[in-house]
Amino acid sequence: MENFINKIKAKNPLIHCITNYVTANDVANALLAIGASPIMADEPEEAYMMSAISNGLVVNLGTLNKHSIEAMKSSLVTANLGGIATVLDPVGVGANKFRTNIANELLKNYKFSVIRGNISEIKALDGLVSQTKGVDANEKDEECEQSKVDLAKSLSQKTNAVVVISGKIDVICYKNRAFICENGDAMMKDITGSGCMLSALIAAFCSVSKDLFEASLKAVVLSGVAGELARKKTDAQNGANASFRNNFIDEIYKMDDEKLEKFARFSEI
Amino acid sequence: MENFINKIKAKNPLIHCITNYVTANDVANALLAIGASPIMADEPEEAYMMSAISNGLVVNLGTLNKHSIEAMKSSLVTANLGGIATVLDPVGVGANKFRTNIANELLKNYKFSVIRGNISEIKALDGLVSQTKGVDANEKDEECEQSKVDLAKSLSQKTNAVVVISGKIDVICYKNRAFICENGDAMMKDITGSGCMLSALIAAFCSVSKDLFEASLKAVVLSGVAGELARKKTDAQNGANASFRNNFIDEIYKMDDEKLEKFARFSEI
Amino acid sequence: MENFINKIKAKNPLIHCITNYVTANDVANALLAIGASPIMADEPEEAYMMSAISNGLVVNLGTLNKHSIEAMKSSLVTANLGGIATVLDPVGVGANKFRTNIANELLKNYKFSVIRGNISEIKALDGLVSQTKGVDANEKDEECEQSKVDLAKSLSQKTNAVVVISGKIDVICYKNRAFICENGDAMMKDITGSGCMLSALIAAFCSVSKDLFEASLKAVVLSGVAGELARKKTDAQNGANASFRNNFIDEIYKMDDEKLEKFARFSEI
User: Fold this and answer.
1) Has the keyword Hydrolase been applied to this entry (chains A, B, C) (predicted)?
2) What is the ipTM, given to two decimal places?
3) Is the pLDDT of residue B192 over 50?
4) Hey, what CATH class is C4-268 in?
């Protein structure tokens, strides 16, 4: 097993995030917690230059607008040229055709190393009819594990990207191989940004490894384990979702590779 | 008394917020805390589609710009057509003529279910000369209760909206009826976003009831009670405004209809 | 010694921040914590009007875009005309030529009272070849104290501004005089926004004094002392960077001039 966290802390990778303003602060603090450096820049005229000096690029569609879309496109050009890891977080894709069209255009023209979303978003990306409800997963889409794995495999084979479906059980898939991860806590869906933070963490993990499949898996495990530990602390404090948010980032900060391995619960399926 | 919180948790309403980037994270977490789903989308070409699938729309003028104003207008069209609750938070209105003109234009052309602001903002909206100072209420405007009630009634009658004036004593008014609510804590004005969060919570409450007046009143009570409970916890932690912000959202999460009724302090005036 | 904190709490100065969306919430809460009122407005058509009624203006290049740059320029015109304190936070300057060009253009055409950045950013501003890495200081630039002081003096003499270089040891310089401040904690670099908050606090301190050099120095001391106290509380809570962020703002809230003087560690160099 690669010592991802040690490697990140040693390399201090610069992760360029073109992301939404709702969770940008949490994403930045989560990246700092793991030992990476966040940079958010979404002016089209400079964003591609930030990607050119970065070790990873996250494209998060949360509060996209025409300007940030241009920044995403030009940044993906330099990121793809430079061969750095690129992560797509298709927030809310499927909710309306504008957002879905943008996601499709990005997928068609640029190379993504990893795509991470909830089941509704991944379904929409895969071109199926989905019941997306805003940015949260629709319960109707929270189906059986096997159908999630099949979906992830389908999208991974079409895009050549690692596909991560977040949910009660996370699915991490590359082409015809898939892992499920059982780490995590129900309160992760009661804060905004747990998905956005995970997408950025995946970019950080991918920036220190050539094995993007394992890197994505371990980032998912990290997020889940941090969620479990944060929940224990939150309950002990008689806190709720806002405390959980802080504890979650704190637990990422306090994680090391040994602790990660100790609490990890994943298996190939 | 309607069981608003139970209803929100059961319905999980989608609340579309065209809001400022300063407090968007807090607004999202407060909505999640009460059991609603937040969606922030302010690209003009897609925002109206988000409103079309939402159960409530919040228009918050905090960090407005020309693009978000277009998003507000088109979203209000679909929200009004769909008959969902619309809440106007006129942040900083009265501070300059640009902001005041936008607010007036919105009021003239679209239907708002609820308008919530501080006394300076509501005074500016009502067309009076106000002493607005940035986004915080001017002390000169913090007048006697009766003049606040008269002001709220005036604006409510002109706009046909429920009018909420936040302050030491909150006023909730619909046409010629008014309640005052004494819940709350002084530290609420020492964090950014307590007003923004309340406006979003009002939208959530209105999304599960036909009685928008009671819904607005109960959302105000919720915010005030959460503030009181958060203050107790903050003091016990030897914390200050940042801790209070987290505790405030936590207390919203932990609230139920029984607790709300137990601590409520409001009366018709 | 001036009683800066008392004065701020008495005056409640309005601080206009044209700042990035990553840390805007923290900046607003830090300003509220010290007793100032934050206003964030970056629409070009209204921003200059906000500066006209403000007591201080912060221009932070974090997530700049073409629109916010226009807002910065027109706001600087009214701020300079009105004679209020203006603070430049050159986030990420040196990372690419777009950002560096903007900073240079601002420096050439407008008057800044204070410029605050890390060593890489200040070096870039001074026209030297710098090794900027995103928004965090490059370790190669973290040189000996004396070279930092020389750099600060050089930029101060060129710009007639107070120059603050944040780092393990902070340097506060005006023309040929310089102080170093040893307050602070290593965890301040593990949260996003500690620099942004300091820049805003400097504006608040400058808004209540004619001695901008002492005001800047004392704001730096405040930030450092708050960092030290926050770290103690964070460790006692077994927390990490997210807890530290909240504790940091809490400690600003709980600070008074006596406590500040008691913990201050600075000296002229």
Assistant:
1) no
2) 0.94
3) yes
4) alpha beta
